[in-house]
């Protein structure tokens, strides 16, 4: 019964529907791209505004649908369309959108990219459902049709990079490599890897751009490794060795990145398996998908679920680390080489700059320590210590001690003296006492005593 | 039954509506205006190198006697704690009468690549604490650490316990090797020495990418598709853009600090083992004898709850409390429910301890 409903709904009135949709779309595009509105009226937007019309003409002009699709196929269902209209549209909007900069611009780009992915996915789903609908009309069991569709989608992830990107609405697993290569984008070795158009002929020869050369795999790769292990000779032997090491690093990176990409593709394949399972479950539980968006979200959920398990695995962690570490080694080699070149021109090198930064940093730390010490010293409260010392001195009763000392000296003098009488000695001592008291300190006593001596 | 009931007409209409929203939203997007970095009024009270210490202006008449200094992570920018009027931890604390200071680390450049954890913790944090102590004629203040800033606050409290009256940690990793810590799994085999020796500072974009890789399909695609639904809702769109700005406003990481943090904390799990050495001194969590308030989120995918909870077993404090929030690593600061729960919980706990 469900099959019947599906077939009837899906097969009727496609031509009329197509016309209606494009009329609406044109009206919408016209409304938003009028010269006096919003983001239009800027150089380049005229062309962008016209493209839905051109596209429509292309579609309605009787151009045959690609891939053997039915004449009523939606434009985005035509695999062999020369340009992807959604892509063109989003690119136009992104490129010519005025007054949007900074985070908004990035957000817009991300949004347009996601929107493009969504529409692209819808296109693929439409095509798949169309085929299934045709099969259902012929009495085929829908579960078999679904199974075939999933298998076909999975095959796109097996070694066909471009199609994998098309099928994956988010192309999420192109991100790891992309992020790292962006980080190292100024590195000529990586640019050569990504573009396949190495400016460096040696690298070009080794990497071979997009073309797989014998020395990149199997016995050829082994041979290349052996070649690179041959010791350098003569005046330039050190340079030869460094270059050989760099080449080995580059090969190691290439191998690691291929392994990583292969592993990552498994996520998409397994996500499709999970999607298949969940669709069967929904069929069994009579809870069908009712919107394209719902299907998209289910696919994302499946991808996230598989990805979560995958990235926690030992295999992923090792592959990821190998790739990242290999890439950084290549970067390190290139930096060292560039430094060597700069040094020959008597120009400042990265190493020298780093060294200067370190020295400045160390000096700042030393100055900071000294400032801290100085601050601590000046901040210390010495008044308490001074008070304590004064107290000690007071307790010692210095004046009395001095007096006693003077008395003892006087006594000593008196006992040693035989020229004067006992009374005269006492008078001398009595004379000395008021003088000491008036000066109030030990020095005068000592002076007097000396004088007395 | 066949698991797909959408008709071609419905599907086509859905896509058409989607594209209409997309086109109309372009204008909204261009009219959003600049995105702010924090909303609460504040004054710069201390500057050193690229660091700025801010003091937030009070929002109530009577302020708590002991100020609280917020120590944010080096990753991303601290205005996440003050994102918008109705989503601000800072504002919540101010409304509760707290006297709030915040360290803004700035954007390190090449000249900062040799800044290590000693510079950050015994240097910058310590001098900020000293500054606040002098300004308030206090000998010690309250510390509130956020994420990595929480780990820094823990280290500081262990190294300078006499300067910290109360310690509050929020979504702070302590055990860096719990099995559910994905970041830690990824970090274990990273040759961080080679990475830092080669790159110097670690690009912020690289960290962003790492965080996004944890949910690449949802964060790289679905999020933006959902955003199309917000394009005709200016306020919600602005909120989305604020968060988007914060997510991608990522300073580079000072190379040496990054190296030490990855090796000592992630790869060696040194905080738990008591093996972290900063400025020649071992970070012994038993030295943390002041009251501790540990706030963590139950759905935190960056700092799993178990990574935070272990703090209870490691500190020397006899006054240890926890607060759990039903949300994620960011939601604990910016969700609507968090505003009602987190700032009052922190403030009440601090007020109860003088």
Named at the architecture level, the CATH assignment of chain B is: 3-Layer(aba) Sandwich
The fraction of residues assigned to DSSP E strands of chain A is under 5%
Number of domains of chain B: 1
**CATH fold name of chain B, please?**
Rossmann fold
Amino-to-carboxy terminus distance of chain B = 66 Å
Average pLDDT confidence of chain A is 66
SSE run of chain B: HEEEEEHEHEHEHHHHHHHEEEHHEHH
The H-and-E topology of chain A, N to C, reads as HHHHHHHHHHHHHHHHHHH
Main sheet specs of chain A = none
- Widest beta sheet: strand line-up of chain B: 1-2-6-3-7-8-11-12
Q: Can you walk through the features of this model?
A:
The complex is a heterodimer of chains A (453) and B (354). Chain A is mainly alpha-helical and 453 residues long. Chain A has four domains: 1-35 and 43-58 and 71-78 and 86-94 and 103-140, no CATH class; 171-347, no CATH class; 348-379; 400-452. Chain A has 19 helices and no strands. In chain B, strands 1-2-6-3-7-8-11-12 form an eight-stranded mixed sheet, with helices on both faces. Chain B has a two-stranded antiparallel sheet with strand order 4-5. In chain B, strands 9-10 form a two-stranded antiparallel sheet. Chain B is built from 15 helices and twelve strands. The model of chain B has no long low-confidence stretch (mean pLDDT 93). Chain B has 354 residues and is α/β, with parallel strands linked by helices.
Characteristics:
heterodimer, A: 453 residues, mainly alpha, disordered C terminus, B: 354 residues, alpha/beta, Rossmann fold, eight-stranded mixed β-sheet, two-stranded antiparallel sheet, globular
């Amino acid at each position: 019964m469900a099959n019947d409903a599906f077939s009837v709904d899906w097969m009727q009135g496609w031509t009329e529907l197509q016309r209606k949709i494009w009329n609406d779309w044109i009206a919408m595009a016209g409304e938003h791209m009028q010269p006096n509105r919003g983001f239009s009226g800027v150089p380049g937007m005229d062309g962008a505004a016209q493209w839905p019309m051109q596209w429509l003409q292309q579609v309605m002009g009787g151009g045959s649908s690609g891939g053997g699709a039915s004449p009523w196929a939606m434009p985005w269902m035509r695999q062999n369309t020369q340009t992807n209209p959604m892509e063109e549209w989003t690119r136009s909007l992104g490129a010519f959108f005025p007054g949007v900069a900074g985070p908004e611009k990035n957000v817009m780009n991300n949004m347009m990219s996601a929107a493009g992915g969504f529409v692209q996915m819808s296109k693929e789903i439409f095509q798949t459902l169309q085929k299934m609908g045709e099969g259902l009309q012929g009495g085929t069991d829908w579960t078999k049709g679904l199974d075939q569709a999933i298998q076909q989608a999975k095959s796109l992830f097996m070694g066909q990079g471009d199609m994998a990107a098309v099928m994956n609405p988010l192309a999420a697993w192109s991100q790891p490599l992309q992020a790292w290569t962006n980080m190292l984008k100024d590195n000529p070795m990586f640019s050569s890897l990504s573009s396949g158009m190495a400016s460096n002929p040696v690298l070009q020869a080794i990497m071979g751009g997009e073309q797989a050369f014998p020395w990149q795999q199997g016995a050829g790769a082994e041979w290349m490794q052996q070649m690179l292990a041959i010791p350098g000779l003569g005046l330039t032997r050190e340079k030869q060795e460094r270059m050989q090491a760099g080449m080995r690093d580059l090969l190691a990176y290439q191998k690691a990145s291929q392994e990583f990409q292969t592993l990552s593709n498994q996520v998409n394949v397994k996500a499709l398996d999970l999607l298949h399972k969940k669709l069967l479950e929904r069929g069994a539980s009579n809870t069908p998908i009712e919107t394209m968006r719902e299907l998209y979200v289910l696919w994302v959920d499946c991808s996230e679920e598989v990805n979560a398990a995958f990235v926690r695995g030992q295999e992923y962690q090792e592959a990821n680390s190998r790739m990242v570490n290999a890439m950084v080694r290549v970067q390190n080699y290139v930096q060292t080489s560039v430094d060597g070149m700069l040094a020959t021109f008597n120009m400042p090198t990265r190493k020298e700059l780093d060294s200067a930064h370190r020295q400045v940093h160390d000096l700042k730390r030393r100055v900071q320590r000294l400032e801290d010490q100085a601050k601590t010293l000046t901040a210390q409260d010495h008044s308490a210590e001074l008070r304590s010392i004064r107290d000690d001195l007071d307790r010692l009763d210095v004046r009395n001690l001095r007096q006693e000392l003077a008395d003892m000296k006087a006594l000593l003098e008196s006992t040693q003296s035989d020229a004067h009488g006992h009374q005269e000695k006492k008078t001398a001592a009595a004379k000395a006492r008021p003088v000491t008291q008036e000066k109030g300190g030990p020095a005068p006593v000592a002076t007097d005593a000396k004088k007395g001596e | 039954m066949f698991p797909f009931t959408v008709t071609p007409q419905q599907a086509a209409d859905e896509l058409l509506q989607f594209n209409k929203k997309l086109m109309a939203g372009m204008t909204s997007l261009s009219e959003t205006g600049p995105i702010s970095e924090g909303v609460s009024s504040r004054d710069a009270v201390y500057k050193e190198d690229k660091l700025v210490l801010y003091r937030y202006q009070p929002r109530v008449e009577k302020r708590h006697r002991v100020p609280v200094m917020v120590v944010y992570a080096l990753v991303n920018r601290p205005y996440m704690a003050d994102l918008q009027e109705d989503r601000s931890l800072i504002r919540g604390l101010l409304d509760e009468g707290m006297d709030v200071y915040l360290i803004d680390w700035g954007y390190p450049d090449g000249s900062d690549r040799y800044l290590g954890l000693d510079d950050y913790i015994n240097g910058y944090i310590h001098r900020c604490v000293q500054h606040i102590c002098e300004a308030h004629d206090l000998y010690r203040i309250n510390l509130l650490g956020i994420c990595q800033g929480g780990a820094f606050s823990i280290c500081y409290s262990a190294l300078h316990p006499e300067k910290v009256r109360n310690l509050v940690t929020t979504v702070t990793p302590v055990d860096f090797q719990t099995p559910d810590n994905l970041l830690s799994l990824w970090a274990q085999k990273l040759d961080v020495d080679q990475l830092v020796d080669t790159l110097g500072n670690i690009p912020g974009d690289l960290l962003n990418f790492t965080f996004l890789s944890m949910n690449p399909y949802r964060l790289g695609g679905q999020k933006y598709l959902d955003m199309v639904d917000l394009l005709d809702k200016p306020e919600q769109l602005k909120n989305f853009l604020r968060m988007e700005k914060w997510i991608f406003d990522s300073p580079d990481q000072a190379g040496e600090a990054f190296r030490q943090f990855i090796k000592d904390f992630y790869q060696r799990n040194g905080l738990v083992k008591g093996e972290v050495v900063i400025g020649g001194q071992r970070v012994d969590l038993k030295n943390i004898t002041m009251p501790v308030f540990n706030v963590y989120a139950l759905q935190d995918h960056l700092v799993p709850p178990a990574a935070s909870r272990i703090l209870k077993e490691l500190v020397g404090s006899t006054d240890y409390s926890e607060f759990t929030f039903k949300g994620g690593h960011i939601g604990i600061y910016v969700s609507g429910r968090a505003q009602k729960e987190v700032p009052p919980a922190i403030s009440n706990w601090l007020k109860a301890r003088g």
